[in-house]
Write a structure and sequence with these properties.
Length: 272
């Protein structure tokens, strides 16, 4: 397993070069990019932009593993809505991001975006479930052309009312029925499930392709109550060999502290 960190951990006024320099100095192997941090309107991202980012990252010895926070801007994107035009535009943007991801050298698109999937009480669940699968499938088909994989992310009940467990999200992936649609696991989100995190990892071993290391307190691994020893043991048991990507939501301790303390703790737990 290798280490990555999400770029929005760093202050918005830092240049991409400065972000790469610090992440590399802290010992990370890769960055995970949030499109909304790269352009005011991520629909304006170009292949030239993607190549430039890849070149900068590689100059510091870093990979760009892929994208996350896909549907943050514009805020009206949605996958479960009955509005066919809205879903069509969401799929169009997803296909665009698949191409951008590939041009950065990335291979993972983490599909979280809770507000872009919430359902309303008057919607039939199975209908919304099918609409989501149909929308994601359109994007997965584009991803497949470029060797990119969607990693669908279960999220906690405080964030969304749709896809709250790994089991439910696997069912969506099964309905999508495309090799470019898999599962993503996130420690903060899994902490909201009744099932122990190591059991979720074991039960999802045939589906998950990416992993976020964090804590329910919104900070990095080791900065809260979650103990990572059984988590790392389960990841090793299922032979997960992807990235441990640090994603936090409380930036108050400062990016450099978060970056260094997170990787220090993960290395300590892993014995590396």
């Amino acid at each position: 397993m290798r280490f990555a960190i999400c770029n929005e951990t760093y202050p918005a006024d830092w240049s991409f070069e400065k972000v790469c320099e610090d992440a590399a100095a802290a010992g990370y192997h890769a960055l995970e990019l949030a499109p909304f941090t790269l352009k005011e309107d991520p629909r304006d991202l170009t292949e030239a932009d993607a190549l430039r980012l890849s070149h900068i990252a590689s100059s510091f010895g870093l990979e760009i593993l892929g994208l996350h926070w896909l549907l943050t801007k514009p805020s009206w994107f949605h996958i479960t809505t009955p509005d066919a035009l809205q879903r069509r535009e969401t799929a169009r943007f997803g296909r665009h991001l698949a191409r951008i991801c590939a041009m950065t050298g990335g291979r993972i698109m983490v599909w979280g975006s809770p507000k872009a999937r919430n359902t309303l009480p008057e919607w039939e669940y199975q209908d919304a479930f099918k609409r989501a699968a149909d929308t994601v499938r359109e994007v997965a088909e584009e991803c497949g052309k470029y060797g990119v994989v969607i990693a669908m992310e279960p999220l906690g009940r405080k964030e969304t009312n749709f896809l709250n467990t790994a089991e439910e999200t696997i069912r969506l992936c099964q309905l999508v029925d495309h090799p470019s649609c898999k599962l993503h696991l996130d420690v903060k989100a899994m902490s909201d499930e009744s099932k122990p995190i190591p059991d979720i990892i074991r039960d999802s071993k045939d589906w998950f392709v990416h992993f976020h290391a964090n804590d329910p307190n919104l900070l990095g691994p080791g900065m809260g109550e979650v103990k990572f020893e059984p988590i790392i043991a389960a990841l090793r048991e299922v032979k997960y060999n992807g990235f441990l990507s640090v994603e936090v939501f409380d930036y108050r301790p400062g990016a450099q502290f978060i970056a260094r303390e997170s990787i220090r703790y993960l290395k300590e737990v892993m014995g590396v």
